[in-house]
Amino acid sequence: MSSSSSFLTPAGIVSANPSDVRLARSETQFVSPGNQFYHPSACNTWQVFDGTTASPPKLAQYRSPANATRIATGRYSTTSVANLFPFYYAAVGISGNNTTGNNFVLRLISQAVSGFPQTFFNTVNIAGSLTNAPRLSLIIFGFE
Amino acid sequence: MTSRFEIRQIEPASQAQMIAASSTTVYTSPAEQRFHLASAKAWVLFRGGHGSPAPILSSYNISSVTRPSNGRYVITFSFSFSGFFYASAIGLGLDGDDPAPSMYARYIGNSSDTFQTQYTIETYDFAGNLKDNIDVALVFYGAV
Q: Can you tell me the ipTM of this complex?
């Protein structure tokens, strides 16, 4: 005789909806993978791309559907998958390179565009001049 | 072939289980998700150079941001880290697209009692002078 085991979810334990996950208070619901990003402790989006080309290709991403846009030398914008509210969110990032002596500083520019999650930022060299950087990482936390 | 179904009460993960991050038989609730080490413990976007307390534009688990002097900010968490060491990352923002004045930041921390509940950051211009930055974003990871 062969047998198999299954675990049944007891009635009453339900998947937390986005609002419940965002509130982060319930202890009687479970967080499904599909809704986990609504929790305020989870980042909304992240992306790493190559800023040396005119249309910077994504090297890796989470919920960043579009490629970054290089507006001008050392000036970029990215767009994440959904609106964040109330227009303000915490964006951190770093720029990198593999050439000794080239130091880049990432500058994020706050700009609310009708709640659309568009982030503008600059990269400058150690002298303060706008400079393209080969590796740009951006992580965004906010309420979605 | 027969199947054997086992009905088992599924319990919410405790804080300790979330930190251990090894159980596969308890569930994550919205209230406990923040304890996982993959979750940010706090984040904030605040505005510098606007007196003290610094205006908070958006935040999670931040109690206040004070500005004791030019370019220096003290972030108080609404919880306490369990140890003196935790990870932080920063984004320095601008209004507009002017890359200058370029700035950098450093945090001030040591094994003191307050470092578990407070974090001090300084922002400088490239001449080495403490200088307020328009927007400052911070993200924190660690054990609580």
A: 0.76
Kindly report the nearest CA distance between residue B26 and chain A, in angstroms.
9
Please check whether residue A89 touches B, CB under 8 A. yes
Question: What's the predicted TM-score (pTM) here?
Answer: 0.81
Which structure tokens are listed for A133? 């950087």
Mean pLDDT confidence for B4-19: 79
Residue B55 carries which DSSP code? Answer: P
A-to-B residue pairs, Cβ atoms closer than 8 angstroms: 162
């009905």: which residue's tokens?
B7
Nearest CA among B77, B72, B71, B142 for reference residue B114: B77
A59-81 pLDDT per residue, tens: 888 887 778 889 899 888 887 76
Strand duo B4-6 + B118-125: pairing: unpaired
B134: DSSP letter = S
Listed residue (A74, A65, A47, A20) closest to A137, CA to CA: A47
Tokens 């507006």, located at residue: A71
- For residue A95, list its beta bridge partners: A136
B42-47 and B135-141 beta bridge pairing: antiparallel
